[in-house]
Amino acid sequence: MQVERLLGRLTEAVPFAARLSPALAAMIRGKAPGLTVSPECQVTWVGYAGDEGGIVCRLDLGAASSGEQFVVSLTHLVVRPGMLMAREISAYQKHRNKRLRRV
Asked: Among the four residues 32, 38, 76, 100, which has the most C-beta atoms within 10 Å?
């Protein structure tokens, strides 16, 4: 299964750099108003939340996060095009978003 392969490869790659989507950055600012949110983050863990949640990632937002933990869907992150799995991640995100729109 494509998701299982990608999840295995992501698990091996942890930690890796990612960027927050603008919508995700705004949501985090809303949940933690005093937090200075940089668009850059580190993914420190990945898991699978079933069909409903898909691949999820725990983020390290740096020193500004003051110990708060954020677990978000992989669909809300942007990875650098040069990352080894960038194409696989992009394909997963497109497929997942298309599937969610149908529901």
From this structure: 76
